[in-house]
Amino acid sequence: xxxxMRGISKAFPGVQALDRVDFDLRAGEVHVLFGxxxxxxxxxxxIIAGTFAPDAGSFEFNGExxxxxxxxxxxxxxxxxxxxxxxxxxxMTVEENLFLGREIAKAGVLNRGAMRERAARTIADxxxxxxxxRKVVELSRAHQQxxxxxxxxxxxxxxxxxxxxxxSLTESETVRLFELIAQLKASGIGIIYVSxxxxxxxxxxxxxxxxxxxxxxxxxxxxxxxxxELVELMTGRKIDLLFPHVDHRPAETLLQVExxxxxxxxxxxxxxxxxxxxxxxxxxxxxxxKSELIxxxxxxxxxxxxxxxxxxxxxxxxxxxxSLERGVCYFPSDRVVEGLALxxxxxxxxxxxxxxxxxxxxxxxxxxxxxxxxVQGIVDQLGLRPPNIERVVGNLSGGNRQKVMLARGLTxxxxxxxFDEPTVGIDVGAKVEVYELMKQLVDSGAAIxxxxxxxxxxxxxxxxxxxxxxxxxxxxxxxxxxxxxxVLACFFQDEKTGQAA
Amino acid sequence: xxxRPLAVHAHPPTGAEQLSQRxxxxxxxxxxxxxxxxxxxVFEQKFFGxxxxxxxxxxxxxxxxxxxxxxLVLIVGGFDLSVGAxxxxxxxxxxxxxxxxSAAMPDQTAAIITLGVLAGLGCGVFIGLINGLCVxxxxxxxxxxxxxxxxxxxxLALLLTQGIPVYGMPDVxxxxxxxxxxLGLPTTVYIALAIIALVWFMQTRxxxxxYLYAVGGNLQAAIVSGVPATLNVILAYxxxxxxxxxxxxxxxxxxxxxxxxMGGDDMMLQSxxxxxxxxxxxxxxxxxxxxxxxxALFLSILTNAMNLLRVDSKMQVVVxxxxxxxxxxxxxxARRRRRHG
Lengths: 501, 341
What we know:
The complex is a heterodimer.
Chain A: E1 3-12, E2 15-25, E3 30-34, H1 41-48, E4 56-61, E5 64-65, H2 71-77, E6 79-82, H3 94-98, E7 105-106, E8 109-110, H4 112-126, H5 141-152, E9 159-163, H6 171-186, E10 190-194, H7 198-204, E11 207-212, E12 215-221, H8 227-235, H9 239-242, E13 253-262, E14 270-275, E15 279-284, H10 290-298, E16 303-310, E17 313-314, H11 320-325, E18 328-331, H12 335-339, H13 346-351, E19 361-362, E20 365-366, H14 368-382, H15 398-409, E21 416-420, H16 428-443, E22 447-451, H17 455-461, E23 464-469, E24 472-478, H18 484-500
Parallel strand pairs in A: 3-10, 3-11, 6-9, 9-10, 15-22, 15-23, 18-21, 21-22
Antiparallel strand pairs in A: 1-2, 1-4, 4-5, 7-8, 11-12, 13-14, 13-16, 16-17, 19-20, 23-24
Helix pairs in contact in A: 14-15, 15-16
Chain B: E1 3-5, H1 15-26, H2 29-43, H3 50-75, H4 83-104, H5 109-136, H6 142-161, H7 171-178, E2 181-182, E3 185-186, H8 187-205, H9 207-217, H10 219-224, H11 229-255, H12 264-277, H13 289-308, H14 313-337
Antiparallel strand pairs in B: 2-3
Helix pairs in contact in B: 2-13, 3-8, 3-11, 3-12, 3-13, 4-5, 4-6, 4-11, 4-12, 5-6, 5-11, 7-11, 8-9, 9-11, 12-13, 12-14
């Protein structure tokens, strides 16, 4: 047994991220961690990697209790994490990053020849197409991912943690990574593999641990588990109970985007439209530009080309204030950074985006009574518990914070709702309520654009599903074509045409 | 019920975009330098007089040393407002201690000079340690800490001297070192070149250089990779202050007296300007000392040109501020326009 964890708990302000979770890892196995965003997977791997200390519980590595583990110490004893947020220094070269913190040096003076040689050898052994001399900032996400993996494998590795490693790899790179994982397994390394792609889990996993809302649901052998069982364990309900049935009645086009290109080229030449009475989904891998796309429509990114139309009217140079006036509303994925004033009460957070309306302020003087009434009404409608609108937002759970955000969108007449990863970090109960709200909005004739990295979410909710890859729109799926295999195929199809060109 | 492959619009970078990218990556600095020298060749021949060139080289040397230190702090993602004040403190402390030692042991010139210089550099270590410890351990913003030490150092320098120049340094120190020429060039130039070479070696060939870049480039990544981040941040601030103190020693030797008005706001502003013009990022992680030296050269030529052309000294400050704002704005613009991988 390489790793043995018993009763691990960890709380963050407002959230119990892990609640008495057991986890273990044997040498030479792939142990899949499975669960939705916010289920506690990343907290668990961060504890193993030494980023956080657990509040309670025992944690043994190789039979030795781990106390006061730091990320550096973890690496030294052989726990190598590959996170989705890369631990790379963008302005340094691949080679400099590989050796960061363990440079070959004599009396502080670097031995650059030796490092160049070893870097080249490591990259060749892994079979990655990486140039050691290139700066990381110039690399694609896939190549950054490879750099990160190469970096993790530089030292003496006993436990390898892979957090959605294929999220930005192409098909051939994925195949190569799987071969690599097989080799590492054979050499006795224990691998913790975080993913929610069914096909990978079945192909790679020896055991699967399912987490939900910070609790251990089950640890089972991968052989003989069906996909439906896994999804049910993950969400805690049958799929048809999790996702409401939405009646799409597509009507007029409310949002039309043509040939949109952003200043940082995270989005290039993208066309799409959203109609009243339907949910338009946008799927894509991390970093494909899908968030940037709707952020640009709302006025949060710099646009250098293309046109946007709202209800048929040309809308140049968007800004959040003018978007709100035109009835376009955006819900950010990071509610702490971009959404909420954590130190202020729910009431102020909800009315924040509507203070130009006379209902809330007349002659720039707040209409407190009217504000309280309207906000209370919306909050009750959304089922915020407890419904006290004077509570400070910083004390709320993830689900309730999201409801405060949504409430803000309901303070004024809005016809186009842009949802950016709406269910990240919220529990299943709150999720169902968010979906239910979307259904109500669509029923009342609004257009919803749903950007999500959770495939099941877009697959089940969207009436039309766009797929983005590397800043471009690569497909539009409708009807029965909205399926996981189809979406994945779109990423790879683009890859092939890209190579042919 | 179909998969409709979507038309993909191609947007190759335009010629103008490529040109602006290239200009922004090489930097405008070499072009600015050539332009300013050409301008002087046409409008003010006095610029090329030997004495004037020596003046430009001397002020370039002082500024380059301070700006090299400023760059190190910028690289780790901070900045240092106290460099000018450190120069003032160094100048007065060194002159005072040399004067006191001369009275106590008049014959031992070598010891007087050595101890005096060490006392001056010690001021740099002292202020640098306060800056570094507060930023690295207490996580106080560099702005507040260095603003505070600026006030402390300036105040101490004024207290020590009551604003009166301090004389009494050994003649040898001023005549044979501060104002001397070696092989036809001011001594300061050699020392500045040596310092730039050392810093260059440190940046490109040593572990410390790598760590400074890593800490400023991505602090989290550096910590996770086992880089002793706190120590490196402290080192950057100490090196910065020691370099400023070195400039203070050289300036004092050149002037022949210790003065609390030496350095000051000018040096603070110019050192940041020289670094930013040379492409040092205010967000940390980027900066090369050889370019910073060029930045110092450009600013010194500019100041000298304005003096020769009798531009009002108040106007000069305005111009300098304008250049600083422009350089920072350009850097930010370039960063935003950078292509995603």
